[in-house]
Design goal:
Length: 613
């Protein structure tokens, strides 16, 4: 955050505790005199006082620069008159400022004075800038817009703690939500009328990942993107074990859900691969927790949907990184053969096995070249369109990889892959193979993202539905949904892959079906207004509802992954037996219901939020 191009103006006539405001290029930053709580007299400019103590701190040095710029302006303000351009600028700035303050007062209502927030003491990071507020009000789902009052870009856990503590202790209360990379679908990281804590992005170099080669872990800032975690660990030849398909997600964001991909059958979800976290609780306390230290909080935040604390640091388990990947896809027309093979592959443990097992459903062959499947190139041995699905028009694609090291013998890799493929019952001749660097494989979805962006197809509404389906009912789900409700239009990939429940820690906050094996079914839709009725947001959202209704009607006990509900009863049903524990943890770690209100699980205990609920 640079202040070099800062234009600053004194604004008279503001009632204490503020004597002056500086308008910086990215928003309004307060440079304040603090009123003595007893006498009401204005004291020394707090920013200046504090910054004198902080010579070597880059973040505080920024405020030092801002403060000296302020003094400079103070001097200038005594040498009136300004020239007319400056006067105009001052007037314009005053108007801007007034309108911002008015907007804040309207937003917050009479319950909390907006300027109270500026007492928190993180003024360099707190922004009321329109475009920052706008950007924090949106997410990947593009279906909800809820504006916060302010955006915090913390430089440390301490900054997060100050804001949460303020919210917790203030008479009126205030919502505070961490925002990882804003890749939620239904406004989960929004904070109506509150503060959004933008966790991702640079911390001014203060929070670079720290790798322990000896103990095989990396310590990262909670807002670090997984792509950056990967880049930093690869320098040591190491990499995390469990992934998501897409790496432009934040560590805190995926740990608040679970974090799954084709490695989960073997290593468990990402939350099973974390040694320790620092968490700012809903009371503003910074707590280090692990399996054996403050374990209740540790388990609560893993998959905790941001309800119990904001993860500011995570210690992630590493393994020696493979260098290359043999990436294979095979096709099925018979669903039972497909799931039988998937389940067989994830049952292999202490024996040769694939490193990644996923799959997807092809209900619309026209989509075969969509963002996940550019893989099927014309040079491959058979044409998808020539395959006639036995049970209707639906095909299933098993996707597997074998990782290997630079020094591995390519022939032995071939043999291992061959031996594993021999045990499978896919359509003969439908093997598609490619070989690529490990990093390119892990970062595969980003390439697709760039393509979609170039066509204007990324920033569109995403009515996604992610479900965990018990293994015993996956055939019924196939009949009713893939071969039924979906018809032959889907508007996006449909992932399907099984996982082993014993790789999930039942103490965490995540809920999964009550069977040893369950499937992820992810309907990753993009709504398009291109004239095709089947692809409209309304149509796709209705379809999601029909799928959920179908599961209820047929007693298929699915659990939503990345869940979205709007009533307390629905959340209680979602958590089932775990609800009392979830509730107790909430009362203990966020008793005022300040955190992650965008999840709509607990109604905030304060009035300024009511309109956004
Ligand atoms: C293109 C794409 C691909 C995806 N692929 C996968 C996948 O393969 N596997 C998978 O598991 N998921 C996947 N996801 C879903 C992803 O895990 C969620 O969107 C998740 O919320 C992470 O996104 P985020 O980091 O942007 O977090 P946000 O959406 O910003 O936040 C999600 C929730 O977590 C809370 N939160 C964020 N940061 C923190 C923190 N530091 N501490 C505490 N709470 C926090 C927020 O308040 C919010 O409630 C994908 C999403 C997209 C858009």
């Amino acid at each position: 955050m640079g202040f070099s191009s800062t234009a600053m103006v004194f604004v008279d006539g503001f009632s204490p505790p503020f004597s002056c405001l500086s308008i910086v290029n990215r928003g309004y930053t307060l440079v304040r005199r603090v009123a003595d709580p007893l006498t009401g007299k204005l004291g020394e400019n707090e920013g200046i006082t504090r910054n004198k103590e902080a010579n070597n701190n880059p973040v505080q040095n920024e405020s030092l620069r801002s403060s000296s710029a302020n003094r400079h302006l103070h001097r200038r303000s005594k040498r009136f008159p300004y020239n007319s351009t400056t006067v105009n600028q001052i007037m314009a700035a005053k108007l801007l400022l007034l309108s911002a303050i008015c907007r804040l007062i309207v937003t917050v209502g009479s319950t909390l004075h907006p300027t109270d927030l500026l007492l928190v003491g993180t003024e360099n990071q707190l922004s009321f800038n329109r475009s920052e507020i706008r950007s924090a009000s949106l997410d990947f789902g593009k279906m909800n817009t809820v504006e916060p009052m302010a955006v915090l870009r913390p430089a440390s856990a301490d900054d997060v703690s100050k804001v949460v503590k303020f919210a917790y202790e203030s008479a009126h209360g205030l919502a505070v939500s961490a925002r990882g990379h804003g890749h939620s679908i239904n406004g989960q990281s929004q904070a109506g009328n509150g503060v959004v804590v933008e966790m991702s992005g640079s911390r001014g170099g203060r929070w670079r990942p720290v790798v322990s080669e000896k103990l095989m872990y990396v310590d990262v800032w909670g807002g670090e993107l997984w792509i950056d975690v990967l880049k930093s660990t690869l320098k040591y030849g190491l990499a995390p074990k469990s992934w998501t398909d897409y790496l432009y997600l934040s560590v805190g964001g995926t740990l608040s859900n679970a974090g799954i991909s084709g490695q989960a059958f073997n290593h468990g979800p990402q939350i099973s691969n974390v040694y320790e976290v620092d968490v700012v609780t809903g009371k503003g306390e910074v707590v280090t927790c692990a399996e054996d230290k403050n374990s209740e909080l540790f388990h609560a935040v893993m998959g905790g949907l941001g309800q119990f604390g904001i993860i500011t640091r995570a210690r992630i388990a590493l393994e020696h990184s493979p260098q290359r990947v043999r990436w294979i896809r095979v096709l099925y027309s018979n669903f039972s053969a497909f799931t039988h093979d998937q389940e067989y592959l994830i049952s292999l443990h202490d024996q040769p096995k694939f490193d990644y097992v996923e799959g997807f459903v092809i209900v619309d062959k026209g989509l075969i070249n969509n963002w996940r499947s550019s893989f099927f190139s014309p040079s491959n041995p058979i044409k998808i369109s020539s395959i006639n699905a036995a049970g209707g028009n639906v095909l299933y694609c098993l996707e597997i990889t074998k990782n290997y090291y630079q020094h591995s013998d390519p022939e032995s890799i071939d043999q291992e892959v061959e031996a594993l493929l021999k045990k499978l019952n896919y359509i003969p001749g439908s093997v598609f193979t490619t070989d690529l660097p490990y990093v390119d494989f892990l970062d595969r979805v980003h390439k697709a993202e760039l393509k979609l962006r170039s066509k204007g197809l990324w920033d569109v509404p995403h009515p996604w539905l992610n479900l965990f389906v018990p293994k015993s009912r996956i055939v019924d789900f196939d009949q009713g949904v893939f071969k039924g409700i979906l018809g032959n239009k889907t508007s996006g990939p449909i992932l399907i892959y099984p996982m082993n429940k014993n790789k999930w820690d039942d103490e965490t906050s995540v809920v999964t079906p009550n069977e040893d094996v369950f499937y992820l079914v992810a309907l990753l839709r993009s709504a398009l207004e291109n004239g095709e009725e089947a692809l409209t947001l309304e149509r796709l959202s209705n379809e999601n509802r029909r799928i959920l209704d179908f599961c209820v009607e047929h007693n298929i006990e699915v659990k939503q992954y990345l869940p979205h509900y709007t009533t307390r009863q629905e959340w209680m049903d979602h958590y089932g037996e775990k609800w009392p524990q979830f509730y107790k943890r909430k009362m203990e770690f966020d008793p005022r219901h300040i955190l992650a209100t965008g999840q709509r699980i607990f109604e905030p205990s304060f009035t300024s939020m009511t309109r956004s609920w």
